[in-house]
């Protein structure tokens, strides 16, 4: 390193010289060790990341999302107080569940217009607008959960009811009868309770304690309506 | 997070000043405040600062906080989220209290003054209407199921369209009728000197909470005994209409007798029409001996189709 030509680090004190005149000549004295490494590890990682998602196969892209969705399904089926659903929210799971439920619940086109179960669009509207309304209600009451986090939780907690729908359809294949009805009633009630427990495990903490019941009651109503649609489903 | 702390503290200061009593502010003793009253939620810790606190700061020096929250003359604009948040500023205990108050109306206790304390909320009316609509649809469906168990020739179907009908009719009733009532009362404001009309939200609140008593009534209508159904209907209608009348009475008392009587009877009549409409549309009484489709009143849009085949899955063996 070159020797300092003036007092180190102090270009302005030489009085007759203009300010900063010798700035370009400043060099670091050997008394002050300034050395090290400045590496930016992100840079190389970003390049790797970019190329990895661009060049990866479609299979791995889809599997990554499917694994995320599946992980959240597990969190719903075994509800503990964890933040995974809230932190990395996504709406793929709710969409898959809602479409499955609506496809299974819709009535045949041969049915008359007035009687019969809901149409596909009616189920879809009930699920999504119901979830949006509950989210708005929760936010208006002063909850500190974000809009999409709440939608994500409510959508994922439909999973037990979708399972109930599948079981009901299987049970209905066995033919009508009161035992048939009792089994379906039992299954729907259990899954309804499961949905409520799962969603309150995630949502209840976001509300102030004196309003928790006010925020949980619409969730109860929402899942009750969906359970009712599942229970009254009659294949034509 | 120094910035957020400063912001919170600043908001609290501002809010304390804004809660100061102005000479024109409504106190709890004076119950006739003709100006529209709103209230603001001093949600200091709520975490969303949507820039709503942009009112003109009151210059009053009487910064005494009363036991209940004071009303503020100016609210955040209707395009901000906080404006709507102020209508949901209720606790569970308050909502339950208001529901209890609507279930047991007393002649001296005005619902608005006594229970709402001039702080209407939208949570109660909205969710009571939603619950009532769904309970109507569900119990209507259940009635059909129970009727079919007695009389297997009736064709059962889920009849999902009833949910739509119930929802639309309940919400229209609970929001349009208060609108008309509020408009009418404001129009007649000139006749009354002392007592001002309620705000629109208070009227909606009164109607919404008065609909609560219909929920247990609808559930009890599952019992297929006709005279019992009419008894329950009359009881619930009486309670509900009494609540409405007791609330409206101080406001129309000053008006001419004709207008007061007409208004109150119209209110009661509309309420009765709602109850009767619900009964006739959702709970078509199907006597167990009859096989033919029931001959009901004229306004039934759905008829149960008579099909000789045994219906499936919901039928008993």
Structure write-up:
The complex is a heterodimer of chains A (236) and B (317). By secondary structure, chain A is mostly helical. Helix content of chain A is 61%, strand content 0%. Chain A has one domain (57-106, 117-232). Chain A is elongated. Chain B is mostly helical. Chain B is 52% helix and 0% strand. Chain B has a domain at 110-283. Chain A binds chain B through residues 107, 111-119, 122, 137, 139-142, 144, 172, 176-178, 180-181, 210-214, 217-218, 221, 224-225, 228-229, 232-235, and chain B through 41, 43, 46-47, 81, 84-85, 87-93, 95, 123, 127, 130-131, 134, 138, 141, 155-161, 164, 301-302, 305, 311-317.
**Whole-number average pLDDT of chain A?**
81
Which sheet architecture does the biggest sheet of chain A show?
Answer: none
How many helical elements of chain B? 10
Largest sheet of chain B: none
Number of helices of chain A: 9
Q: What number of structural domains do the residues of chain A give?
A: 1
| SSE order of chain A | HHHHHHHHH
Q: How far do the termini of chain B sit from each other?
A: 68 Å
Global shape of chain A: elongated
Q: Which regions of chain A are unreliable across 5 or more consecutive residues at pLDDT < 50?
A: 1-14
Strand portion of chain B: under 5%
Largest interface (C-beta under 8 Å): A-B, 39 and 40 residues
Membrane topology (chain A): Multi-pass membrane protein
Keywords (chain A): Membrane, Transmembrane, Transmembrane helix
Transmembrane segments (chain A): 89-107, 119-141, 153-175, 181-203, 215-234
Main location (chain A): Golgi
